[in-house]
Fold this sequence. Notes:
With 430 residues, the protein is of the alpha/beta class. It has 17 helices and nine strands.
Amino acid sequence: MIEERYIRHICSIDNHPISTLNIKLKEIYIKGLGACLYSLSNGSEITNLYYEVWANSITSNEDNKILYWGNNDTYVKKAMSLHRNGWRLISMKHTLLFDCYYILLSSIRKKDEIEMINKVLNYFNQNICGIFSKHASNAIFSYFANSIPNDNISQSLINHRKVNLDSESNICKNVLVVANVSAGKSTLINSMIGYRINKAKTTACTNKLVRIYNKTAKDGITLYNLNQTYEYTKDICSIDSDSFTCASLYFNSNLCDSNICFIDTPGINNSYDLRHRSITEDAIKNIPYDAVIYVSNARYFGTNDEYSILSYLKKHVKKPIIFVLNQLDCFDKEEDSITKMLKDYKDDLIKLGFKSPCIIPIMAYPALLLKLDKSIKNNIENKRTSLYKELLNDSYYDLPNYITGIKSDGLLEKTGINLLERQLINIIQS
């Protein structure tokens, strides 16, 4: 007989993320969980009863008919592919694993908790055809490794689910990133997140709005659009940004602890596709965001296209704007003055009506190479990384020094990327 206290224990897990799903998605998830538990418990009647208690606790009376108890990996795979826009800590597949572990532990109540963890992880790794990543398995194992059955695990689950719910709320800070073509916008985003996830070319790349969420767990990169979810843990450079509209990953930067989402917009002045301007202008006017990063190419600032989009920003943006002057690594010490460039840039912004504009000089590409240094396999980029390291030893390229008057500590700091990240944190936390 199931002890009442254990039933209460399961039902005490409030705010389960599945309870917020529509009936169709809820059905997929519950059937997937039932299939997992059936396999893991060898069809145990006691585990089935706990599964029913759990399912009934997060569904309405009308939903009870969707309960499923049987060994069918099709349901599992469908459940593991679900991803809700804004879930950051752990995706649906991880929630499924948590639920399996918790229900099994409650129903079987084995003394050896580690054995139970390994059993669940082995099932996911061996039977779900690689959908569940090794990195995620390690994260889950570490999460539960020091826990005590029942009470502490329950609290861990509650906390885990609270973070998921918080991520779906308005707590997430949206940062709109805007630029003309060739300003280095995609490279800048890549350098802030620490991965080469966006295309970066001299022609217009982004042809839609792409949202990039920060995770709080190092469990791989999740790419998704309206219909499919993809999980990448290796070969990140091969990702085709045309295949997704949202991404979730752990940011390799000062932003790693921030609940933040970058919204990448198409380049405004794409003469080959006038839709890019309308998409970006519509985003500036209509979607919710907390800050804007506007990226300028230091080599070509001052064009009519530049002034046009800046005027549009001045008219429609009521949130803080960070003006990024990028590609200063292309400046020649003997011919170009970074000091004069920054002054001219500031003067132009003031003339356009921006009072006390926040300007950050940046070398986005060198910053990205430095962050990816140990993982770069391309010989050309390895040579470029070495050249940039030598270049940055010259005080001329110490970009934060032009703003703060303080010499930077370390090569990455000199690129200006850390200064930008800290400034962004200050804005979104204010």
